[in-house]
Amino acid sequence: MSRAIRPLVYVVLTILLALIHHLYNWYVSMALYQVSGGIRTTNGGWTEYGGAPYAWTIPLDLPFAWLINTQSSPPLLASLALAVIVPMAVAYSIVAIAINWFDGLPLAKMKLQIAIAVLGLAWIPVPEKWAFVYGWTVRY
Fold first, then answer.
1. How far apart are CA 16 and CA 78, in angstroms?
2. Model pTM score
3. I need a labelling partner for 97 at 20 to 30 A (CA). Which of 63, 72, 86, 103 fits?
4. Cα–Cα distance list, 31 to 1, 15, 37 (Å)
């Protein structure tokens, strides 16, 4: 890839993948929260949120979820920054892995990018209040 076009490719692909990651995070977390019992439909057709023994979250979302869900008045700027930083970091890591691999760099040289990508795409069970999904279903 030409050195002149590389920064543009990084920026465009990172923004596109960050948006995709945000949607991925939202849809998968809602589906997993429903499976764990956090989203239920009542006999009257209403939807109830909360009360699950656990919920699923992406490890990189834990600081954001903690700020939003455990503080009586969360620091808005910090929580919004984390909501933007996590998808951007994951997207940038994936783009860096793809471009560097395409250019012939061995995967062993990209340990940090691989770790960020894995921690940004993997799901782990956590107490319900620690999950990203709890903030936009139960809390608010």
1. 23
2. 0.84
3. 63
4. 39, 25, 10
